[in-house]
Amino acid sequence: MAEIYHRTLGGKVTFIDAMTRDEVEAATARAPWEWSTSSRLFAPWPASRVRGVPVEPLSLADASPRATSIWKRA
User: Fold this and answer.
1) Low-confidence ranges of the chain (pLDDT < 70)
2) pTM
């Protein structure tokens, strides 16, 4: 059995000692940000897949109902 550390999405690090050396090598190669042989050697989290998608705010000149309702007074 080999020692390995696992980091959850919440950032909690837990120690696991019920994996074989082959399983440890495969896990650290596949996801080094999630599995590590030391609690200090985790790789940084991978970039989000939605990063870089441009955000286009609504324009007051848009013909959408939300944009035109800004100009209406009750």
Assistant:
1) 47-74
2) 0.56
